[in-house]
Each structure stands twice: as C-alpha cells, then as structure tokens.
Design brief:
8-stranded parallel barrel, GH_1_N_CS, about 475 residues, Glyco_hydro_1, two-stranded parallel sheet, 15 helices, beta-glucosidase activity, Glyco_hydro_1_AS, single chain, TIM Barrel, alpha/beta, about 40% helix, 6-phospho-beta-glucosidase, about 15% strand
C-alpha cells in the first residue's frame, strides 16, 4: 500500500448534529410532539408520556434561535459540509397530515440558505431518532404499513422544496437502532423484557420500503440527488482464534449488515431469510415490495463509527462487559475506553470502511465519529480538549489509510461539532464539540459559545485537506 499524501479534492469535511439534540423550541411555530420529547433519559430508556420529568431535549442548546451564530462558527472552521436532520414534527406535526406546516419548512430553508451563503454543503437526514408521537399513539408506530405513505409524503415534501439547494440526503439515521432501541427507532412500545422479533422485523421492512420510495421519488424530482442509507456500524472481532469465536463474530456483524444489505443490494440476504424462517417470523409484504427494494437502492453508504465490539463463546469473557453506542459488548483487552466505557479503536474505522466498500462497491460517507467527554473551562476561558484531538487525529489517520487501500470515502462529518444533548443519556455533561456551550444537564448556564482547543486544530485539518493532523 502506498500512503497517500492528500484526501481527494472536494472531500466533504464537516460536522453532524440531530434536530432533537440541539434545536430546542420543541412546541414553537406549529411543531408537534415527537418521541424524543417523551424520552427525558435518552434513547435506551422507557418513554415518559406524562412529561413530568425535566427533558433537556425540549431546550437543546437553542439552535432554533442561534443557528446563524453557530453556522458562522462552522464556517470559520472551514466546514465543507454540515449534516443535520429535519424534525418530522416541524413539517407534519402529527405525521399523517397532507399539507405541511409552512413555518417548519421556512425554518429549514433559512438554515440551508445560511449554509449555502458560506459554501457549506447541506447534508440532510430525513428521520433522526425522532418521529411524530401521534404516529405512535394512533398507528402503533412503524408496525403499521400506513407509515410508509406518511413518510413518503414527508420525504417528497422535503425533496420538492429543497432539491435545488441540497444534494446529499439520508433516509433514516442508524436504521438498525430498531433492533436495540425499538421506541426510538420505530415508535414500538413493549413491556419490559417483552421485545419481540415479529414487530421489530415487520417495522424494519416498512422502513426499508419507505426508504426505497424516498430514493425513487427523490431521483424522479432530481436525478442528481445523492440519497444514502445510514447505519450504526458494529464491527465485531472474534475474541480469539477459536473457530467458534470467529463464527460468533460473523453472526454478530450480520445483525448490522442486514440493514445495509437490503438498502444497498436491494434484497433480503439468504442468511436473513433463514433466520426469519427458523424463528417463525412472518413479515407481511405487499405486492411490489421486493421490486421496489430492488429498483431503488441507495447511492452511498452513510455510517457512524465510535467503537468496535468483540464476540466470544467463553462464559467468563461474557461477564466482562463494556458499554457502547446502542448496546454493550465483551471487553477488548487490547483497547482503552472513554469515560463512558466506549472502547477506542481507530484501526477499526479502517477495517469497517474496507468491509463496507468491499461488500457494496458504493461510496462511503463517515457521518458520525467523535469522543464524548467531560470538558472543563479554565480560569482564562480556554478549554483544553487534547483527549478529543488525539481521538480524532487517530481516526482520521486510519480513514486516510482506508482511502489509500482503495476505499471511496466522500466525506467525514464528526459527531457534535458543537456541544449538544447526548442521545444515549439526555445530558450535556457528555460533550463532543469543538465549541463549548455554557449550559449544564439541568439547562442552567449562559448558553455562551466558547471555542475549544480542538476548534483551531480541526480548522487546520480542513485547511490542509487532512495533510496536517
């Protein structure tokens, strides 16, 4: 392998956020309630429909009102792209309306125009960890086939309004989250310990079809649109060279790759057909569903990468668990972990990039990667986050090596370029940003923006197109 000196020309450096984690203004300008609005403890906790508990998602970091100031800071860093999501409930408050809420469309038009003003490419996630709460209450979430048409109308509305200004789109954020957090991923409600595969896989099928319809309608409106899927990558290593561990790792990886297989290849893989049959799962499909999936595959693979996992068949290894994004796993003795127990594995980013590109031969877009940590403002007002710089540098170096391996990577939007509310814990103590937000997990603080040490570091990375790390 010959080491490359530069990332490709036009590489989309930037950052990524989600509407429900930073906008706030959760009831304003016609917005309806979403699943995030009743999840005060994060995506892995049961919802609180009473809404009695304080919920930081309701306030976020006030981006709804500070977007111009924040985008100006992203522009100062030299962002080439900015990935954000649209809150479904700002456009269709209940999800099943035919006519969109114009105030919601106008807000996102202003955000897009602000990005375009600075030559920042908008990258939009259509549905990111939130959906209208009314669709849960009135239709039982994505278990209902009716949501396919509601989502198609929503996506069509966005494409029609923004297709001349927005080229890059993703249909669902971390679509495989339905397996691990069914309420967040699909609006599914289960009693504790009663999660069932039947509802989960039926809901996943409806999302696959909805995603394919979005690809179809998007390309009909504008053939130049690039519409991708987005998965939470869960690269799994065998704990040892024991053949059973290797097989366990392959089986674990398939739980993630199934979701990209359907959207990128356009069909249910044989291993999943076998699993469905062996577990008496009956996925109800309508005539034409399989053709829709086959004819409307995604243009690129978007994915998040924070850590790797380990599979073992030895009971004593299974006892040593570590936490992570969406699910816990066996502790890897060769890796260090973040303050939240997420194992830090930069080489895994190169590995998973090769895995996905070898499998699909479609461009990859790394749309989430970052370090959640406690940051401290010093007496002189500085925030020295060398730990974050070290983390990002190591991952960008491995991304560079993946490109040298021949992998087509079009961009890198690190997670949370500005501190925002954590998805997993609904707190602000766990910070990811290059920009510190003076607000705590109780919503207290001046909301002032402060550049961290990583701000100028990332600015230089972008300015040199990844040459200086």
């Amino acid at each position: 392998m010959s080491e490359i000196k530069k990332f490709p020309e036009g590489f989309l450096w930037g950052g990524a956020v989600a509407a429900n984690q930073l906008e706030g203004a959760y009831k304003e300008d016609g917005k309806g309630l979403s699943t995030a609005d009743v999840s005060p403890k994060g995506i892995m906790s049961p919802p609180d429909f009473s809404m009695k508990d304080f919920n930081l998602y309701h306030e976020g970091i006030d981006f709804y009102y500070t977007y111009k100031e924040d985008i100006a800071l992203f522009a100062e860093m030299g962002f080439k792209s900015f990935r954000f999501s649209i809150a479904w409930t700002r456009i269709f408050p209940n999800g099943d309306e035919q006519t969109p809420n114009e105030q919601g469309l106008e807000f996102y038009e202003k955000v897009i125009d602000e990005l375009v003003k600075y030559n920042i490419e908008p990258v939009i996630t259509i549905s990111h960890y939130e959906m209208p709460l009314a669709l849960v209450k009135n239709y039982s979430g994505w278990k209902s086939r009716k949501l396919v048409a509601f989502y198609e109308n929503y996506a069509k509305t966005l494409f029609t309004r923004f297709h001349k200004k927005v080229k890059y789109w993703m249909t669902f954020n971390e679509i495989n989250v339905v397996m691990h957090a069914p309420f967040t991923g699909a609006g599914l409600l289960f009693e504790e310990g009663e999660k069932n595969d039947q509802d989960i896989y039926q809901s996943a099928h409806h999302q696959f079809v909805a995603s394919a319809f979005a690809v179809k309608v998007g390309h009909e409106i504008n053939p130049d649109l690039q519409i991708g899927c987005m998965i939470a990558s869960m690269l799994t290593y065998p704990y040892s060279s024991k053949p059973e561990d290797m097989l366990a790792a392959v089986m674990q990886d398939r739980k993630t790759l199934f979701f990209s297989d359907v959207q990128a290849r356009g069909y249910y893989p044989s291993y999943m057909k076998n699993y469905i049959e062996e577990n008496d799962i009956n996925i109800v499909m309508e005539d034409g569903d399989l053709e829709t999936l086959q004819e409307n595959t995604v243009d690129y693979i978007g994915f998040s990468y924070y850590m790797s996992f380990v599979a073992s068949t030895e009971p004593e290894h299974l006892k040593a668990q570590t936490s992570g994004n969406l699910l816990a796993g066996v502790k890897n003795p060769h890796l260090k972990a973040s303050e939240w127990g997420w194992q830090i594995d930069p080489v895994g980013l190169r590995t998973v990039s090769n895995q996905l590109y070898d499998r699909y031969q479609k461009p990859l877009f790394i749309v989430e990667n970052g370090l959640g940590a406690v940051d401290k403002v010093e007496e002189d007002g500085s925030v020295n986050d060398d730990h974050r710089i070290d983390y990002l540098r190591a991952h960008i170096q491995e991304m560079k090596k993946a490109i040298a391996d021949g992998v087509d990577i079009i961009g890198y939007t690190s997670w949370g370029p500005i501190d925002l509310v954590s998805a997993s814990t609904a707190e602000l103590k766990k910070r990811y940003g290059y920009i510190y937000v003076d607000r705590d997990s109780k919503g207290q603080g001046s909301n002032k923006r402060i550049k961290k040490k990583s701000f100028n570091w990332y600015k230089n990375v972008i300015a040199t197109n990844g040459e200086e790390l």
